[in-house]
Design brief:
heterodimer; A: about 500 residues; alpha+beta; Dipeptide-binding Protein, domain 3; 15 helices; about 30% helix; globular; B: about 325 residues; mainly alpha; 14 helices; about 80% helix
Chain lengths: ~500, ~325
């Protein structure tokens, strides 16, 4: 057969091309496949290490594959997962009773598996996110295949919270830490590094009738605008990290719905190793100098709220209304405090933030403007994120902007941001001892009575408002958006927003 | 000719070594600790003890010269090391990602040359006419519009409004060839638009210049048909600088499709490089930069050889 380009050949080729173009039809017109949810992630999990902190996207995938001893329900309340029930004895000994559950390879989840997880993750070099906390577990016993008994150096009221964290799921004894064999509702079917992950329903999951979806395709869309475009174009069903500027556009779209909570927060940290911010009066002056509403407007398109106290949500039982405006905007008071501290004319300093994330930069710019009004001349240092982390860890700044969530909704979860006895880290002030607060956190952990704990954390917040070891700036709205037909997926309340992946077991497509 | 290629290859290898060494040293000079970053994911306070343990495991506590020597020894034996993040072999990841970037670049080059050379030639023949004005205007406009603007606009039009194509993403050709090509269209077209402008302008200038040459006048004088003069004497000679520019542009694009890969979520080599730099994943960064420099140097070599083939005088002069 000879190939010659002539008129007839040309017509034949072009008509084939035209026919193939017909396949480029709109995606939305295709019939919806049964129970496959396409989920746009903001980033590909850097690792699948079950016990390490590898970011929130990894957390979402872990909450699909794995389960911990306990967990949180869509209402934010703790509930049993692998453990059917748990109780604490008067001496602080915790006993967990396991339910009948199986690993993805079909073998049963035993008490021995659980004990192995704890002993491995508590090793000093484990690099487990909760290594420090788990190290206080002095003995772990397994009298039978369904019972786990844990003893700690001192009574630990917050212990179940450790085992509810998505960075402390249980894996099968002897498996590598990044194992794909879990006990969760979905099994990893395949993963294309940096691109996508496919998870299929595990038919042996211990909750009857769950998961409702047959498969979840998690696809990475790093660009937030493309994530929104993909949802609007119908390429995906659910997206995480909805950019604030797109929220009202999604709310206005009848085919989509938006689910937001105020969970993560922005705050200021200080370098306590040198003047002027080693002085609590100066820190308080800063706390009273900034009008929070302007941060919420500039950085979050009014999606969030002012935060003039410790980041304890209004809905929390530990919220203290009397301190709700403890660091209210009051420039006169700020100036007076500054004068009292010996700086009536202000001073020059550098503020560390990052240009890599718009919200960090905008927050820094608003703070800079307000601080200049009380005479503090701020020079912004805006390196990319990796450098910012390094400088924060090494204390190369005077004051710095940070944004994060607490570990959970319990006020003990704030110790990471507030407790100055913990090692140097960019997430908290640098070398700023908080002896009273450290003691109060320890007390709060050792007491089981909720009313007594409330009193302790109220006292803690009072001390924090007085000494300002960190200064709250703004709550920011954290959003998921989805097609109107997606049912059962819940953005979990407050600090638990990044645990929302657990509700994928209840999710279905209408 | 062979001696010429051998000599050029030797120089190329030296250049690659220089690039790799500089990148290796620069990476260790800039602030940011891979172990610390890996353990601080999600803005979490990393435990200093865990960071120290991880640094030891990554070999970051060895003296720099020792790290450099062991890395170079690995490179010479074809081992680019493993990712700090999840231990994936760097060479496998590059092998996976590079073809995807090539697809975009080659797609763009096809669009650019397929349209650019005829358009540029047409503009040159009709120099200062209406067609020339229109073509030159659009070429300038395309050249001065940043790719992320073009990218966002085409997503808005073709994905969100018309819904003809997906907004972005990637599906392997082996899994779904049609979907794969649909996904390739927008990124390749976006890169292609910019390249098209370059090629059009280059072709126009080059053809204009050749049209003034004596041999073209001679060909006209001896009564050759217009089409034949254009084909045999004008375009062929005018292509030499166009090929040079195309080669250089394609070389630049291997590491320069970052924005397009980001906007369209196309998991190519550029995006891989950016994420590796963000995480201070040293083995990945060095491996990717080395690959890009080898390709860039190699492309230059190919351009020279192609030019020599297009114009036999070039190789005579240089050998």
């Amino acid at each position: 057969m000879t190939t010659r380009l002539n008129r007839r050949g040309f017509l034949a080729t072009t008509s084939v091309a035209a026919t193939s173009l017909a396949f480029l039809g709109p995606k939305g017109l295709r019939a919806q496949e049964g129970g496959v949810l396409r989920f746009a992630l903001s980033t590909y999990p850097p690792s699948f290490d079950a016990w390490a902190s590898s970011g929130t996207a990894a957390g979402t995938i872990k909450l699909m594959m794995h389960r911990g001893l306990v967990g949180y329900g869509p209402d934010g309340l703790m509930r049993g997962e692998l453990a059917e029930s748990w109780e604490v004895a008067e001496d602080g000994t915790w006993t967990f009773k396991l339910r009948d559950a199986t690993w993805h390879d079909g073998s049963p989840v035993t008490a021995e598996d659980i004990a192995w997880n704890v002993t491995e993750a508590q090793k000093p070099d484990s690099a487990a996110y909760l290594q420090g906390q788990l190290a206080s577990i002095t003995s772990i016993e397994t009298p039978d295949a369904k019972t786990v008994i844990m003893k700690t150096t001192e009574p630990q009221a917050t212990l179940p919270g450790w085992f509810a964290h998505y960075n402390m799921p249980m894996i099968k004894k002897g498996e590598p830490r990044d194992t794909m064999i879990g006990s969760g509702p979905f099994k990893m079917e395949k993963n294309d590094r940096g691109v996508s992950l496919t998870l299929t329903a595990y038919d042996g999951y211990y909750k009857e009738g769950l998961p409702k979806l047959a498969r979840v395709e998690a696809i990475v869309y790093a660009d937030e605008n493309l994530r929104v475009a993909a949802l609007e174009a119908g390429d995906v069903d659910l997206i995480e990290y909805v950019p604030w500027q797109a929220m009202s556009q999604i709310e206005g779209n009848g085919e989509l719905k938006l689910d937001t909570v105020d969970g993560p927060f922005m705050y200021l940290t200080f370098n306590g190793s040198k003047p002027p911010f080693d002085n609590p009066l100066v820190r308080r002056a800063v706390a009273h100098a900034i009008k929070r509403e302007d941060i919420v407007a500039a950085a979050f398109y009014d999606r969030g709220g002012a935060l003039e106290h410790l980041p304890i949500a209004e809905k929390s039982e530990f919220f203290n209304p009397e301190y709700a405006n403890g660091w209210n905007y009051d420039p006169d008071k700020a100036k007076a405090l500054l004068a009292e501290a010996g700086y009536p004319d202000g001073f020059d300093c550098t503020m560390l933030s990052t240009a890599q994330y718009g919200m960090h930069q905008s927050t820094a710019e608003v703070c800079q403007a307000y601080l200049s009004m009380i005479g503090i001349n701020v020079t912004l240092d805006l390196p990319e994120w990796s450098t910012r982390v390094k400088k924060g860890n090494e204390g190369q700044y005077d004051l710095a902007i940070m944004g994060t969530t607490a570990a959970n909704n319990d006020p003990d979860g704030l110790s990471n941001q507030v407790d100055g006895s913990l090692p140097n880290s960019f997430v908290r002030s640098f070398q700023l001892p908080t002896p009273e607060i450290t003691d109060l956190f320890a007390k709060g952990r050792a007491i089981f009575d909720t009313e007594e704990r409330k009193a302790i954390y109220k006292e803690l917040e009072r001390v924090a408002i007085e000494t300002a070891p960190m200064v709250g700036l703004a709550w920011r709205s954290q959003g998921y958006a989805m097609k109107a037909g997606v049912e059962g997926f819940t953005n979990m309340p407050g600090q638990l927003t990044f645990y929302s992946g657990i509700t994928l077991e209840d999710t279905m497509l209408g | 000719m062979l001696r010429y290629i051998a000599l050029r290859s030797f120089v190329a290898l030296f250049l690659v070594w220089v690039v790799v060494t500089i990148v290796f040293l620069l990476l260790h000079l800039i602030p940011g600790d891979p172990a610390e970053l890996l353990l601080s994911q999600g803005s979490i306070a990393a435990d200093p003890q865990a960071v120290a343990a991880l640094r030891e495991k990554m070999g970051l506590n060895d003296p720099l010269w020792q790290q450099y020597l062991s890395h170079m020894a690995g490179v010479l034996s074809g081992d680019l090391g493993a990712s700090f993040r999840d231990g994936a072999p760097v060479i496998d990841q590059i092998a996976l990602r590079l073809p995807r970037t090539f697809e975009v670049i080659i797609g763009a080059a096809l669009i650019a040359t397929g349209l650019g050379v005829p358009l540029g030639t047409w503009a040159a023949i009709r120099a200062d006419g209406k067609a020339d004005a229109v073509i030159s205007f659009f070429a300038s406009a395309a050249l001065s519009t940043p790719v992320f603007v073009v990218g966002s606009v085409v997503i808005l039009i073709f994905a969100q409004e018309l819904r003809w194509l997906p907004a972005g993403g990637f599906v392997a050709f082996s899994e779904d060839p049609v979907e794969h090509l649909k996904l390739l269209l927008l990124p390749a077209g976006t890169v292609g638009l910019n390249l098209l402008a370059v090629i059009t302008r280059m072709s126009r200038a080059s053809v204009l210049e050749v049209l003034q040459r004596d041999y073209v006048r001679t060909a006209r004088a001896k009564g050759l048909p217009r089409g034949e003069i254009l084909r045999r004497h004008v375009v062929r000679n005018a292509l030499i600088p166009v090929v040079t520019v195309l080669g250089l542009e394609m070389g630049t694009l291997i590491g320069g499709t970052v924005l397009v890969e980001f906007v369209f979520n196309w998991p190519g080599l550029s995006g891989y490089l950016v994420s590796a730099v963000d995480a201070r994943d040293y083995p990945e960064v060095v491996g990717i930069v080395m690959t890009i420099s080898i390709l860039f140097v190699f492309l230059n070599l190919v351009v020279d050889v192609v030019n020599a083939l297009l114009d036999p005088r070039i190789s005579l002069v240089t050998t």
